Amino acid sequence: QVQLVESGGGLVQAGNSMRLSCGTSGFNFGDSAMNWYRQVPGKAREWVEAITSTGDNTIYADSVKGRFTMSRDNAKNTVYLQMNSLKPEDTDVYYCDAPRIGRGQGTQVTVSS
Question: What pLDDT is stored for residue 17 in this prediction?
């Protein structure tokens, strides 16, 4: 059974940092690129970042470039999203996604001004 479970969300003040985690099971994590997306009801889903299966390359949306860093630990089947210099417009539900495999339920990130 494929599972992706995000954690680490919550309320943070603008300018501060937060790290999200996504633990996975049920598929060959080390063979899969991974993505982070964000979305709230009524808004289009926004792709945030992607990382290759080995973790040696990442690509970022312009909206988070220079502030967010994605990483992974293949030994722990976990992917991370380090978010620095958070802004109120980063408020969203953040999802990890394994392409063509599945995605998690999401974790809420709220950035107060």
Answer: 98
